[in-house]
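Incident log, structure service

09:12 report received: a user says their structure output differs between two submissions of the same chain.
09:20 pulled the input from the user's history:
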Amino acid sequence: MTIASSSPPSRLPIGSAEGAATKPRTRKARAREGGGDGRLAAVFIAPALLGFLVFLLWPTLRGIYLSFTRFNLLTPAEWVGLDNYTRMVHDPIFWDSLRVTVEYVFINIGIQTVSALAIAVLLQRLTQSAVLRGVVLTPYLMSNVVAGIVWLWILDTQLGIGNEIIAGLGFDRIPFLADETWAVPTIALINVWRHVGYTALLLFAGLQAIPNDMYEAAKVDGASEWRMFWRITMPLLRPVLAVVLIMTVIGSFQVFDTVAVTTNGGPANATNVLQFYIYGAAFGRFQFGYASAMSVALLVVLSAITFLQYRLTRAGQTDLG
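09:34 re-ran on a clean worker, output below:
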């Protein structure tokens, strides 16, 4: 009986026509897959990109243009060159508003950052309860307007429960929002109360990225909690803390709604922060060109501060290997 021998299929040379045809087909398939991913990415990015162009880029460019004009909504914009900026440089109220804003930022950022860092470390080192995290975040879920109204009632000199408690303890009532000395610190503390939980959770997320092995090794070496905080937590948390500081500083310079609800810029312009002064110039006196010039100046100041913070804090670098 003869068994037919089956020879293995012949292999085509690498440089053959079929081999050459296979390679381009693979590339085309990959190109088609990549094109599909690109189209899908474009679909997801489109809403955010549209919002950026319509609500951020275009208003910014429009505002820069209006800063060189005289415009009051009733007549066409009239080009005046640098007149608005010259007026701003010689405007004492502008400089006073900038001073008030800087005072508010220092109080708000200083207290908020220290408090948020303490809360975040306590949440990370003692407990990671989701319930406690929710409680910490609760004030942030309230709008600034509502928070301002609530604290306006609480701190009212005559009827507020806060002053009722102070009077019940035998102390004089304090005009928290009606006195030039107390007004700015009070507004700063109101916003600290509202935002400190959110800031703490951002820092808590940064703490979660620090390997727990480092703390365990430090404990074996006999390091105290305080020493671990300064030698491990702070160096490794630096990039996250730097980004949080940049965000909170920018937000603090843009304070408006709490001032508008509680003091309306008073007493005697003691809380007339820069954003409130810009709002008054634009929608109170219809000087949109001058208001745009002050807005551009604020944009330049915030850009410079952000750049310096980023460089000095090395926010783009991490000590984690």
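09:41 both user submissions now match this output. Likely a transient worker issue. Closing.
09:42 reviewer note: The radius of gyration is 30 Å. The beta strands are 69-70, 78-79.
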